[in-house]
Write a structure and sequence with these properties.
Elements (H helix, E strand, L loop, with lengths): L7 E2 L1 E9 L5 E9 L2 E14 L2 E13 L9 E4 L2 E9 L7 E8 L5
């Protein structure tokens, strides 16, 4: 992996649930790390759902290998959030981690 290709600073975040003073459950996102990444757009498609057209975008982020990325996390880049679907070390050499994400239907 060439360092020059890692040209985007991303925020890896994990969902945190805690009880507030009233005993209610509150959900928020906590930053795990801020690695440099390369963003690769994989596909874009329009899906018809409940009489409206929505978009779902699939992207892949390439980062240096790490072990703390898992499904259910999110990546924030330039105020846009992407839901982590899978994190794979495809070559098995612990050099590069490929993080597959979606953006669209599950926003909110």
């Amino acid at each position: 992996m060439r360092a020059g290709q890692l040209n985007r600073l991303i925020s890896l975040q994990r969902k945190v649930e805690a009880k507030n003073d009233d005993g209610d459950l509150s959900r928020s996102w906590s930053e795990v790390a801020k690695p440099w990444a390369r963003k690769v757009d994989l596909a874009g498609r329009e899906l018809e759902s409940a009489m409206s057209i929505s978009q779902e975008i699939s992207v892949k982020f390439l980062v240096r290998y790490r072990t703390d990325v898992e499904q259910g996390m999110r990546i924030v880049l330039a105020s846009e959030s992407y839901h982590v679907i899978a994190a794979l070390d495809k070559r098995g050499d612990r050099d590069e981690l490929q993080i597959y994400c979606s953006k669209g239907l599950r926003d909110g």
